[in-house]
């Protein structure tokens, strides 16, 4: 059912946000990473043909770039298009005000850059990602991308900040740490509930550590989220402010 929920959310989001842009000469669209984005791209391809759209796609990862090229979509870069009309991406979890944890797939930095460049960030996910407090079901911790030489120091500083576990993420198909598209490492840092209730404060504390490139806390960035409850039911939720 989860795949059907993701598909329902992805289709609904793409349709809802592309329709108002359909008459513009060109749409610059950020393409997120992860499993939920695959059906979003599928629907995007269909709508480009149906509505005769001119869409340039900006990827957030190597995976996203592959999706774009494999589907014969127009590939662009942030150098060419530093201002995006829209970005559509998944999330590992969202809280009651659509603050998100992202980076379970290791693409957090490029995802955050593309999201920041977009006028609107829309999240698509299955309903299990819709929670009141971050860290409720996503218990692996906050992904934090770090410069390799600094990882040990950053781990120690995270523990000083109150993290109960700051684990260097290991690769699955090779020995050693996971290496991002940017050549960096990822630390997954678990924090107590009280800290997760204030994601903006936590983000500011972590990002101030030298060697930290980016965190997977996306605070106040998403305008709306589409959560698939079934193959036919989608819940739409907008940010409170």
What does this 3D model show about the protein?
This protein has 241 residues and is of the alpha/beta class. Helices cover 31% and strands 24% of the residues. The protein is built from 7 helices and 14 strands. The protein has helices at 2-18, 37-51, 62-70, 108-117, 151-160, 193-196, 199-207, and strands at 27-31, 55-59, 74-75, 86-89, 93-94, 100-101, 121-126, 142-146, 165-168, 185-190, 212-215, 217-218, 222-228, 234-238. The strands form 3 sheets. A 7-stranded mixed sheet has the order 3-2-1-4-7-13-14, with helices on both faces. It has a 4-stranded antiparallel sheet with strand order 9-10-8-11. A 3-stranded antiparallel sheet has the order 5-6-12, with helices on one face. Helix 1 (2-18) packs parallel to helix 2.
Structural topology:
Elements: H1 2-18, E1 27-31, H2 37-51, E2 55-59, H3 62-70, E3 74-75, E4 86-89, E5 93-94, E6 100-101, H4 108-117, E7 121-126, E8 142-146, H5 151-160, E9 165-168, E10 185-190, H6 193-196, H7 199-207, E11 212-215, E12 217-218, E13 222-228, E14 234-238
Parallel strand pairs: 1-2, 1-4, 2-3, 4-7, 7-13
Antiparallel strand pairs: 5-6, 6-12, 8-10, 8-11, 9-10, 13-14
Helix pairs in contact: 1-2
Summarize the structure.
By secondary structure, this protein is α/β, with parallel strands linked by helices. It has helices spanning 2-18, 37-51, 62-70, 108-117, 151-160, 193-196, 199-207, and strands at 27-31, 55-59, 74-75, 86-89, 93-94, 100-101, 121-126, 142-146, 165-168, 185-190, 212-215, 217-218, 222-228, 234-238. The chain is built from 7 helices and 14 strands.
């Amino acid at each position: 059912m989860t795949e059907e929920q993701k598909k329902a959310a992805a289709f609904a989001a793409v349709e809802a946000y592309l329709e108002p842009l359909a008459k513009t000469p060109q749409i610059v669209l950020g393409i997120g990473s992860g499993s939920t984005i695959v059906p979003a791209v599928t629907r995007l391809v269909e709508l480009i043909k149906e509505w005769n759209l001119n869409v340039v796609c900006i990827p957030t990862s190597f995976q996203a770039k592959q999706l774009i090229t494999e589907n014969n979509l127009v590939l662009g870069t942030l150098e060419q298009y530093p201002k995006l009309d829209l970005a559509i991406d998944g999330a590992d979890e969202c809280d009651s005000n659509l603050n998100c944890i992202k980076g379970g797939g290791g693409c957090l930095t490029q995802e955050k850059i593309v999201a920041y460049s977009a006028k609107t960030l829309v999240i698509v996910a299955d309903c299990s990602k819709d929670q009141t407090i971050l860290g409720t079901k996503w218990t692996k911790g906050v992904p934090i991308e770090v410069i390799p030489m600094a990882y040990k120091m950053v781990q120690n500083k995270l523990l000083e900040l109150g993290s109960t576990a700051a684990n260097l993420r290991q690769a699955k198909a090779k020995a050693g740490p996971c290496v991002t598209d940017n050549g960096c490492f990822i630390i997954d840092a678990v924090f107590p509930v009280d800290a997760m209730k204030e994601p903006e404060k936590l983000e500011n504390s972590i990002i101030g550590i030298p060697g930290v490139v980016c965190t997977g806390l996306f605070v106040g960035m998403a305008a709306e989220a589409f959560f698939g409850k079934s193959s036919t039911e989608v819940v739409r939720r907008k940010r409170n402010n």
